Amino acid sequence: MLPILLKLGPLDLSTYGVLVALGWLAGVRWLISRRAAMGLGEEQVWGIVYWVFGGAFVGGKIMYFLVTPGSFAFTVEALRYGFVFYGGLLGGLAAGLWHAHRCKLAFLKLADWCATALALGHGIGRLGCLAAGCCYGRHTDLPWGVALAGDSSRHPTQVYEAVLNLALFAVLVRWALPRVEDGRWRPGSVLAAYVLGYAMLRFAVEFLRGDDRGAFVAGLSPSQWVALAAATATCAALAVRKKSI
C-alpha cells in the first residue's frame, strides 16, 4: 500500500522497516522503563536487548531459509526481508537463555518481561506488513477490505494481528505480570501466557490469510501447525511445573 515512505536521492526508506524499527523501539523503551521492577540497571537491560534481538534476527532468518529454500542468498537484500516469527522467537529465547546463564540472571523472570515487550513491538511492527503489501488476507466483501495483491478487497489480516497483539500486551501488563510480581504465579508464567495467547491469535488469523505460506497439511498451514505445537508444549510444561509444586 505504501512500501516506500520516503525517497532520499538514491536511498529508499521503506515503510516496513520504519514501522518494524518503531515497534522495536517501543518494546525496548517499555522494557527500560520497567528496569527497577526487573531489578536491573539500564546497561544490563540493553545487554539483554542486544542478545535477544540478535538471536531473534538469526533465528527468524534461518527458519525463513528452511521453509523457503530457494530464497537463500548471500546479499544485503536477503538480510532486509524474509523472516519467520516463530524462528525469531526460538532464536531470541535461546540467545536470552545463554546470556542470562552467562551473566547469572534469572532467565524466566527476564523472559516474562521480554515476552510482554515483544507483544507491544510485534503489534506495531505488524503494520509494516500492511504497508509492504505482504501477509495479506483472502477476498472479503466486508466494508473494511483493503486492495492488495491484485484484489480490490482483502481481509487486512496484518491489522487483525496488530490489534490482537496489542490486546495481548494489555492483558499481560494488566493481568499476568502483576500476578507474577506479587507471587501468585511462578516466574515464567507470563512467557507461557504470551506463547499461548499468540498461538491462539495466530492460529485464528491464519484462516483468513490469502498469501503463499508453504504447503498445507490436513488443511492447516505450517504456521498453524507450529502454533499448535507451541501451545501443546507450553501446556505440557505448565502441567509438569504444577506437579512439581
Short description:
The chain has 245 residues and is mostly helical.
Describe the protein in words:
- The chain is mainly alpha-helical.
- The chain has one domain (4-244).
- Helices cover 67% and strands 7% of the residues.
- The strands form two sheets. A two-stranded antiparallel ribbon has the order 1-2. A two-stranded antiparallel sheet has the order 3-4.
- Helix 6 packs antiparallel against helix 7 (157-181) and helix 8 runs antiparallel to helix 9 (222-244).
- The mean pLDDT is 90.
Helix % is 55-70%
Number of alpha- plus pi-helical segments: 9
Q: Indicate the proportion of strand residues.
A: 5-15%
**What's the alpha carbon Rg, rounded to whole Å?**
19 Å
Uncertain runs:
none
Across the major sheet, the strand order is 1-2
Number of strands: 4
- The assigned structural class equals mainly alpha
List SSEs in N-to-C order: EEHHHHHHEEHHH
Distance between the termini: 52 Å
Overall 3D form: globular
Described by its quaternary structure, the protein is: single chain
How is the biggest beta sheet arranged?
A: 2 strands, antiparallel
Mean pLDDT: 90
Q: Give the count of structural domains.
A: 1
